Amino acid sequence: MIVYYPNKILQCISRKARKSIVLNISEAFDVMKNIVSSRSEYIGIAAVQIGLLRRIVIIKYIGLYMHIANPIVLWRSKRMVTKMEGCISIPYVNRLVTRCAYILISYRNNRNIRIRKTLQWNNAICIQHEIDHLNGKLINDYKKVL
Ligand SMILES: [Zn+2]
Fold first, then answer.
1. Count of domains forming the chain
2. Exposure pattern of 99-137 as b/e (b: 16+ CB <10 Å)?
3. How many whole angstroms from 111 Cα to the centroid of ligand 1?
């Protein structure tokens, strides 16, 4: 069920999830949740990773799951953070990636309610990684830092 690199779909840009889809994607959310909960090191997943090209993401957030549809970045901090990242779709590969330490996003939850939220540190890194997936970008696309 997981789509692995180098499957070309991982480089595609996901389309916006319409309201009818957001309300009816509980099945996709369930599949994504099952994958993300299967290992403690998995902290987030984008729908493209189960072959669905829609702007839908799940991230683990303080022991809960955030259902995120159509995320929009409203603000990014100037402060940056560099951390080693892995990806469910690229097993055994880790890459140092520099990202914003804080990020303010707007998104729809699984009841189609628009929510604004500031995420920081690991949660900020995670959502930026997943938004990259929605835009067809992978950790492989970040230059190796020596
Ligand atoms: Zn990933």
1. 1
2. bbbbbbbebbebeeeeeebebeeebbbbbbbbbbbbebe
3. 25
Closest-CA residue to 36 (of 61, 16, 13, 19): 61
Cβ neighbourhood burial of 8 (10 Å; 0-12, 13-18, 19+): exposed
Q: Domain range holding 64? A: 8-141
Q: How far is the CA of 130 from the centre of ligand 1 (A)?
A: 6
Interval 72-85: pLDDT, tens? 999 999 999 999 99
CATH number at residue 14: 3.90.45.10
* Ligand 1: centre distance to CA 126 (Å): 9
85 is catalytic: no
Each residue's pLDDT tens digit, 19-47: 766 666 678 888 999 999 999 999 999 99
Q: Is the pTM of this model over 0.85?
A: yes
